[in-house]
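ARCHIVE CARD
CATEGORY: sequence design from structure
SOURCE FIELD: tokenized fold
FIELD CONTENT:
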């Protein structure tokens, strides 16, 4: 069986002459920086085997880390119905909104610096460091005596968690081709959402340690879940793989690494990361497709934070379910969203389309939010949670993938990914502000405010698709160069 020949040393800066739209990496030609032609063949079975190895090593541990990140940032919802409000006087005035909002200040500020640091210190080292830190902070919240301490600790929690989501997206996009990315992002993201929903069931078990679960159980939620996070973080140091150009990757052979780099060169003209400079940062900041995908992702972020933080309260106090059911009933909508998001992502990757799927997800999300907010009976309102959470997760994973697809270079991707998560963090702030304490327990104004942002996504999508398609036509006609590459085309 023929194998991939050793690539020239300078191919990391090559220009690829293969058709960008080909769905297979079996045969391609390239030209290195000295103008020397080369050719490489990637056997499909070898390629599939390598992808399976990457999937098995990368996706489970990143999903685990993101699961506990979601648990640690959103368990304030179940903690509040387990005695946190009374113990810290959190339910007075706007204190709850402040405690939720301060998380996003550091979260928004540290995205780009964190991605730069991850590239400098290595993905395994950096992700282990920040996860250990936020696990310890979560544990410390369990000893809070007042709401001010809680708010300060959550602010630092945001600083450390800031690096996880953009870091994971950046790392995933560094290993896969464009139309493999959304399926992997959906597995990483929605599986974490699903698993984190079971944290409410775990939390119900943890609060039983307290003599009075409804008044003192919140402490055990934070202390034990924080300790678990620290354990997973330490383990992650030995499992996470670094970027394809890192010499720290020992789980693939030299030939397999060469194959990975060859696959990436088909689409990017490079398998190596360039240096993040101010020019690169400015190029990402002024790139409108990044901002378009980021705003769409933000609409999903607004909604998902609403589901994660406020759904237990809506179930308990708004729909009238018992404490036990309020913990348990958050899991089924999350499970449904996993099936929906992964299925839709596979279709989106297969048909190489993002825009039409984005619109469908947003419509479904608005339908679910309207059912929760405006129907009278508990059961139909609960069904709305299934539709709303499924559509929301669809918007998020499609927005993530759309942003990654329309960036060619690795260094620009590190900045663009951080910009997207910064904008999503602003969505978290928005969510904290519109879900006001005085609107509890139904939070109808908050649901309307989130639905309005989803409507913005529906309005933006056809406009974005029009301009992306026009840019591609101009590139085909030779009157425009996209991403400094003659062969690069936007995903629509």
């Amino acid at each position: 069986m023929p194998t991939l020949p050793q690539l020239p040393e300078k191919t990391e800066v090559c220009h690829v002459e293969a058709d960008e739209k080909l769905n297979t990496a079996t045969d391609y030609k390239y030209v290195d920086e000295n103008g020397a032609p080369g050719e490489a063949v990637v056997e499909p079975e070898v390629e599939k085997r390598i992808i399976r190895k990457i999937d098995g090593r990368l996706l489970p541990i990143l999903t685990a880390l993101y699961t506990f990140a979601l648990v640690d940032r959103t368990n304030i919802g179940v903690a509040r119905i387990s005695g946190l409000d009374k113990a810290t006087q959190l339910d007075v005035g706007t204190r709850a909104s402040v405690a939720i909002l301060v998380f996003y200040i550091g979260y928004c500020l540290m995205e780009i610096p964190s991605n730069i640091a991850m590239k400098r210190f290595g993905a395994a080292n950096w992700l282990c460091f920040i996860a250990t830190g936020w696990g310890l902070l979560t544990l410390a919240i369990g000893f809070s005596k007042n709401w001010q301490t809680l708010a300060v600790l959550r602010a630092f929690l945001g600083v450390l968690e800031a690096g996880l989501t953009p870091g994971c997206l950046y790392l995933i996009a560094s290993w896969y081709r464009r139309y493999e990315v959304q399926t992997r992002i959906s597995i990483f993201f929605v599986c974490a959402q699903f698993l984190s929903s079971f944290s409410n069931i775990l939390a119900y078990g943890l609060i039983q340690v307290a003599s009075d679960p409804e008044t003192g159980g919140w402490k055990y939620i934070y202390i034990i879940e924080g300790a678990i996070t620290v354990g997973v973080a330490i383990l992650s140091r030995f499992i996470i793989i670094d970027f394809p150009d890192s010499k720290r990757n020992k789980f693939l052979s030299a030939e397999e690494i060469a194959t990975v780099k060859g696959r990436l060169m088909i689409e990017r003209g490079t398998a190596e990361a360039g240096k993040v400079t101010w020019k690169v940062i400015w190029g990402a900041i002024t790139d409108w497709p990044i901002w378009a995908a980021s705003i769409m992702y933000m609409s999903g972020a607004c909604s998902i934070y609403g589901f994660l933080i406020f759904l237990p309260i809506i179930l308990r106090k708004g729909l009238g379910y018992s404490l036990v059911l309020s913990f348990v009933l958050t899991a089924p909508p999350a499970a449904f969203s996993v099936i929906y998001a992964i299925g839709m992502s596979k279709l989106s990757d297969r048909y190489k389309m993002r825009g039409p799927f984005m619109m469908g997800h947003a419509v479904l999300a608005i339908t679910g939010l309207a059912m929760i907010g405006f129907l009278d009976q508990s059961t139909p309102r609960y069904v709305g949670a299934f539709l709303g959470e499924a559509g929301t997760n669809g918007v998020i994973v499609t927005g993530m993938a759309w942003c990654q697809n329309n960036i060619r270079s690795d260094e620009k991707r590190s900045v663009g990914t951080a910009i997207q998560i910064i904008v999503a963090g602003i969505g978290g702030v928005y969510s904290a502000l519109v879900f006001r304490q005085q609107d509890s327990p139904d939070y109808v104004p908050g649901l309307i405010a989130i639905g309005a942002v989803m409507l913005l996504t529906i309005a933006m999508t056809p406009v974005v698709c029009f301009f992306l398609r026009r840019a591609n036509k101009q590139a085909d006609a030779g009157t425009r160069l996209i991403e400094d590459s003659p062969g690069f085309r936007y995903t629509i």
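CARD ANNOTATION: The domain at 44-476 is CATH 1.20.1250.20 (Growth Hormone; Chain: A;). The chain has 21 helices and three strands.
SHELF: design records, drawer C
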